[in-house]
């Protein structure tokens, strides 16, 4: 697929996972889409999994944007607190497009928490509260960032569980 084809798909409002090897043009395509959105009066929520990645794309961490911080799980009380936050709630409600760069570095639980926050704040049961979601990354490059105890536990589980049949 070409960058122009990917951009055309992004412009349809579809949720997209934009991937490719280093140098394939992911950043170029994302920048072109951001320019397109801004020219149409839409300010996208530009986020990344780490502070360094967020700095490179002119955004903020997904943890900060969603209000989850360093949480490992959210309960209903946490969601109510985030939904009533004077800082988090307005920009989550205002968003129409959520971009997450270096998504391969996010643990699945983190993505689930962001989904729960978007649904709660936007009072919309659709995935991510109805936002267009653009996930950008390369799963062949960077694995999720996890604490050592979580990594050891996950590794032990993978080694002790019986293999599935193919």
Topology:
Elements: H1 3-11, E1 16-18, H2 26-39, E2 45-48, H3 51-57, E3 60-61, H4 62-66, H5 76-83, H6 88-94, E4 97-101, H7 108-122, E5 132-136, H8 148-160
Parallel strand pairs: 1-5, 2-3, 2-4, 4-5
Helix pairs in contact: 1-2, 5-7
Could you tell me the radius of gyration in angstroms? 17 Å
> Order of strands across the widest beta sheet?
1-5-4-2-3
Based on helices, strands and strand pairing, what is the structural class? alpha/beta
Count helical runs. Answer: 8
Low-pLDDT segments, ≥5 res: none
| Rough outline | globular
Average per-residue pLDDT, rounded, comes to 88
Strand portion: 5-15%
Give the total of beta strands.
5
Q: In percent, how helical is the residue content?
A: 40-55%
The N- and C-terminal alpha carbons lie at a distance of: 30 Å
Describe this structure in words.
With about 170 residues, the protein is of the alpha/beta class. It has eight helices and five strands; from the N terminus they run αβαβαβαααβαβα. A five-stranded parallel sheet has the order 1-5-4-2-3. Strand 4, helix 7 and strand 5 form a beta-alpha-beta unit. Helix 5 crosses helix 7. The longest helix is centred in the last third of the chain and has 15 residues. The two termini are about 30 Å apart.
